Amino acid sequence: MRNLMFAAALTAFAAPALAFDGLYRPGPEWGGDSWDCETVGMDGGAIAVQGDRFIGVENFCTLSDPVDVRGMDAVLYDATCEGEGETYTYRMMLHRTFDGIAVISEGVASNLIRCE
To answer: Do 59 and 90 contact (CB within 8 A), yes or no?
Structure first.
């Protein structure tokens, strides 16, 4: 019984991060039509959310401590990121939009369109 409760707790904890899994590209205002959805994490390649990982252009973040945002299809995370030889942390919110997700962090909102 204890193992079943532990598995249920892990599933509940992991669910928010999994809700955003997929490949994304910037919208046309950022030249997103020319981005390659086949390549992840490189200049001109897709941006990915895979479980607790957010993979950007030449950087990646581990997403932890998910908090559902009440009344919104959004989750707030602590992000620990690595890129260009640096490690840094900040808060990141992922919010579902009609055609992808919005990534909100440090006063900037970036709309990303789901790759098809």
So the answer is: no
Q: Are 21 and 49 in contact (CB under 8 A)?
A: yes
**Residue of 51, 57, 52 whose CA lies nearest to 112:** 57
pTM value is 0.78
Q: With contact defined as beta carbons under 8 Å apart, do 96 and 73 qualify? A: yes
Where exactly are the structural domains of the chain? 2-114
* CA pair distance 38, 61, nearest whole angstrom: 20
- Are the C-beta atoms of 109 and 102 separated by less than 8 Å? yes
Return d(Cα 97, Cα 104) in angstroms, integer: 12
Q: Tens digit of pLDDT per residue, the chain (116 long)?
A: 443 333 333 334 444 444 799 999 987 766 656 778 888 888 888 899 999 999 998 899 999 999 999 999 999 999 999 998 999 999 999 999 999 999 999 889 989 999 97
Terminus-to-terminus CA distance in the chain, angstroms? 42
